[in-house]
């Protein structure tokens, strides 16, 4: 079971003076229980790609299939695809609307027709999965911290029990503790068998947590592979507007100056390598 993207392309406002190509010839596969990060600068096509994965946008060029079902405009499987692929938009806390956290999380399964007797269990299970204490369920979501609001938004998608979760810049605006906490949450969901697509400009999380990384530049693939493969590619061919993690940039600088340093984003690996080379 997987999401398969083949030769995907998209153009906004085709045939007009505002015509803009957002994606060109993008291909990859995401299996359940794996984590793909999609990285790139603002305007690189990341969000457009994410919205194709659950059918908000239908392919103009190429194909997207979810567990064998084709994403098509008004296609017969569109409802099932959207049930299987949960999407968390950027700054999702700005879309919160319910009076309590409980009602916010309960909205999606009710909308999908889940029997009312199952709603309470769904809400509490989703809250636990998102790292929310049950004491928060009776609170207004607008009284919570930024990190907690982000968890509520994720729980409101998890309550529908998707098989895949697509998140658009979920760490934007969060402090370092909340970013690590969110990354740990996604790692736990992956270990539980969920497919994760993290759309981000944060290469630290993309490289340290993902099974694979896709880098976009101007809607085209700039790099695709394991984190180590992608980092090596980015060192050879930097992408404008995409900053290497500090440790990776330092390691590259050391190698350029003749030191023996690994291609890495992990400070421990770099420290140990430098210690060994100094003996």
Q: What tags apply to this protein structure?
A:
279 residues; alpha/beta; Rossmann fold; 6-stranded mixed β-sheet; 4-stranded antiparallel β-sheet; 10 strands; globular
What would you say the CATH architecture is? 3-Layer(aba) Sandwich
**Widest β-sheet, arrangement of strands:** 6-7-8-3-9-10
**How many domains comprise the coordinates?**
1
CATH class type: Alpha Beta
Strand content: 15-25%
Task: Tell the overall outline.
Answer: globular
Question: Quick one: biggest sheet?
Answer: 6 strands, mixed
Q: Write out the CATH superfamily name.
A: P-loop containing nucleotide triphosphate hydrolases
Question: Could you please describe the fold and organization of this structure?
Answer:
It is built from ten helices and ten strands. With 279 residues, the chain is an alpha/beta fold. The protein has one domain (2-244): P-loop containing nucleotide triphosphate hydrolases (Rossmann fold, 3-Layer(aba) Sandwich). The strands form two sheets. A six-stranded mixed β-sheet has the order 6-7-8-3-9-10, with helices on both faces. Helix 3 crosses helix 4, helix 3 (101-111) packs parallel to helix 5 (146-158) and helix 4 packs across helix 5. The longest helix has 16 residues, at 176-191. It is globular and about 65 Å long. The termini are far apart. The relative contact order is 0.15. The model has no long low-confidence stretch (mean pLDDT 90).
